[in-house]
Amino acid sequence: MKNIYKTILLTLISISAFGQKSEIKKADKLFVQRAYVDAADAYEDVADKNQEVLQNLGDSYFYTNQMQNAAEVYKLLFLRHEQNVAPEYEFRFAHSLRAAGQDDEADKYFASYYDREIAFEDFQASIVDSSNLFIYETTMLATDNSTSSDFGISYFGEDQISFASTRNTARPIYPWNKKPTLDLYSGNISEEGEISNVVLFSDVINTDEHESSAAFSQDGQTVYFDRTNEKRFKDTSGIRVAHISIFRSQMVDGAWGEPEKIPFSSEEYSVEHPALSPDGSTLFFASDMPGGEGSFDLYKVAVNEDGTFGTPENLGPGINTEHREQFPFVSENNTLYFASDGHLGFGNLDIYKSEGDYSEAENLGNSLNSPYDDFAFIIKEGEKKGFLASNRSGNDNLYSFTRAQYIKKTVEIEIPHEDRIYFAFDKSNITPEYQQVLDQIIDILKSSEATEIQIASHADARGTDEYNMDLSQRRAESTKNYLVEHGIAASDISTIGYGESRPVNDCTDATGCTEAEYAQNRRSVITFSTMEEVVEEETK
Asked: Where in this chain does the record put each OmpA-like domain (predicted)?
């Protein structure tokens, strides 16, 4: 009887193991086909998730913008298999953590990946440049199809735009996200930045393949755009994938002519996201062609007067990283804007700009960039407004924005003494009279949207240098605690005690001054930074 039970148990284990292998095989097939939505569901059904299952499940969530789920799966992956996990999973895990709001953990994995210290708070502070800070106010555009993905926006003439969308339900379903393939649309722009009269582009342009990211010449007679190649090509892993090429079409008798693939496109790699310089003499694009810095790089190529092209040039390491640089746009003042997840940023794709020789990339800050993908940025510099795409709401959506330039202004507030004493002799507690003054200061800090608040506190000359230094620091901390208790963020406040080293009068000795004169040095000074909009004077 015991042998019978053992046989039954072994049979059940074998059936279970066979079922597990079958589930993994099914999920792996979907993953290889880049059907990530279905792959995630299939991998979730696997009871005993090994390292490869966790890697692929995490990636399936990551590539479909389910960052909270991705972070949870990658966390389990690293808890179980940290010593054997390839570096690229650190990179994706760190981005998932950033999107999930776990910045300290994200810093840890970014630091491990890049092999250098990463401090997100320091990066945020570095974005504030007193000479060149722009604040963006973004608004999601209303759409008549909330389930579609909309991005790849571009200017089309004076009052029109073009964008890519999955809203055409007559197109084939794309396994990656289970939405229709992309088509190009056009629409009118209102003064408020709203889009209306949205219509499909010509059937000469749109096909059952993906079309996106159009770029138009200034006269509106030439368009460059992305289209997925019909032919699939085996990548280094032996997986058949469809790469992307740039096509060009000319307006003939009021209609778009048959598109032609530009000559440096290929079946073996992608060439995508065209953008024209203001004078139309240079075409910018993204590509993962061999010889770049890694993944997708940005390139430029001369467009000759006869319509032929020069030799593509990589924009170099100031712009390009080992990760993705995509969606270039060149404004009327020849500033290059682009999206990247390889430079340190606020999460996933961020928008950057570069001027001059493209030797440096500058992040546009967190009034524009989110912890998710922000990309396809376009702007009319003179009007200080434009558009971008972002999946910060969970789906690719279009946003309009207005931009204002600010300077950082440092304001100093010193608590008035009059006949009052800031701190009693040898004390650091806040008196009721002083609380009333601090309440007024708090109102100023809140109304000014103050940042980088510093409290510097002082002592009189009575007592040892060491004791007075400690006493002044306690006074600074006491002042800070009062501000924090009344709604000022502790992270915005720093404190420093100067002891008796910075008197406001000549009372530098322990004797020789009146009590009122000594009292003037028992004080706190509060300084803070605030942003002041740059008002441009109208030229006459």
From this structure: 411-532
